[in-house]
Amino acid sequence: MIEMKDVWKTYPNGVMAVNGLTVYIQKGEFVYVVGPSGAGKSTFIKMMYREERPTRGDILINSQNLRLMKERHVPYLRRDIGVVFQDFKLLPSMTVFENVAFAMEVIEAGRDDIRKRVMNVLDIVRLKNKARFMPHELSGGEQQRVAIARAIVNSPAVLIADEPTGNLDPDTSWEIMHILEEINERGTTVVMATHNRSIVNNMRKRVIAIEGGRISRDEVRGAYGYES
Ligand code: ADP
Ligand code: ADP
């Protein structure tokens, strides 16, 4: 499913963010990525959805080698990988429906397909009744649920979440976690970078800890393992 073999990333300014990282994530897994600030978590995750290219080493997603992937094929990768960010990144001038539909329009899905599937994913994130709302009319948790709907609308094999609860209060964070867990139970692989110790320690999953751009710990039902 996701395979990284001796992956290195040095940024143009010389910062060595990832230093020889090897990892294998199977279909259907739920993985937390933890570690101190500056450890390389975001770089690791960005390389998975081809936002950053590795300097060296191979990254295979569903047997496609991202290092060799041509620029024009990247939009198609977005069908296999959905991404959710800490700051939601919704398009402010589009309704909830349009924000989610947009991800299907980009891959040229038909209009009837789009309507059915968008309402279906809005149902999964429990926002069917707010399809016509604008993002600014929603709470933070609701905005994140729209972002999740957008990320899964094309039925990706993998959902990547970079600090998805970073801007949310504890109750809202748990709502988001239950939705991510439900999506995982339907078969989607979930990879989530987080600083949320309470979530990691209470919803036990595989934990990959990164320090100095390397994996320092990889546990099947791991704990957060840091003080804050
Ligand atoms: P984390 O997500 O664990 O905080 P990052 O992957 O963001 O870690 O950063 C790892 C290291 O790479 C840090 O030293 C950071 O300053 C550096 N870094 C991150 N992004 C860039 C970039 N675009 N250009 C240069 N250095 C970067
Ligand atoms: P750019 O390269 O110009 O940033 P992108 O294609 O990366 O354009 O993103 C366009 C919009 O779609 C952004 O708001 C981004 O957050 C969102 N987006 C991109 N890829 C995904 C994805 N796989 N899942 C969910 N949203 C995505």
TrEMBL record:
<dbReference type="InterPro" id="IPR003439">
    <property type="entry name" value="ABC_transporter-like_ATP-bd"/>
</dbReference>
<feature type="domain" description="ABC transporter">
    <location>
        <begin position="2"/>
        <end position="227"/>
    </location>
</feature>
<protein>
    <recommendedName>
        <fullName>Cell division ATP-binding protein FtsE</fullName>
    </recommendedName>
</protein>
<dbReference type="GO" id="GO:0022857">
    <property type="term" value="F:transmembrane transporter activity"/>
</dbReference>
<keyword id="KW-1003">Cell membrane</keyword>
<comment type="subunit">
    <text>Homodimer. Forms a membrane-associated complex with FtsX.</text>
</comment>
<dbReference type="InterPro" id="IPR015854">
    <property type="entry name" value="ABC_transpr_LolD-like"/>
</dbReference>
<keyword id="KW-0132">Cell division</keyword>
<keyword id="KW-0813">Transport</keyword>
<dbReference type="Pfam" id="PF00005">
    <property type="entry name" value="ABC_tran"/>
</dbReference>
<keyword id="KW-0472">Membrane</keyword>
<dbReference type="InterPro" id="IPR005286">
    <property type="entry name" value="Cell_div_FtsE"/>
</dbReference>
<comment type="function">
    <text>Part of the ABC transporter FtsEX involved in cellular division.</text>
</comment>
<dbReference type="GO" id="GO:0005524">
    <property type="term" value="F:ATP binding"/>
</dbReference>
<keyword id="KW-0067">ATP-binding</keyword>
<dbReference type="InterPro" id="IPR017871">
    <property type="entry name" value="ABC_transporter-like_CS"/>
</dbReference>
<comment type="similarity">
    <text>Belongs to the ABC transporter superfamily.</text>
</comment>
<dbReference type="InterPro" id="IPR027417">
    <property type="entry name" value="P-loop_NTPase"/>
</dbReference>
<dbReference type="GO" id="GO:0051301">
    <property type="term" value="P:cell division"/>
</dbReference>
<keyword id="KW-0547">Nucleotide-binding</keyword>
<dbReference type="InterPro" id="IPR003593">
    <property type="entry name" value="AAA+_ATPase"/>
</dbReference>
<dbReference type="GO" id="GO:0005886">
    <property type="term" value="C:plasma membrane"/>
</dbReference>
<dbReference type="GO" id="GO:0016887">
    <property type="term" value="F:ATP hydrolysis activity"/>
</dbReference>
<keyword id="KW-0131">Cell cycle</keyword>
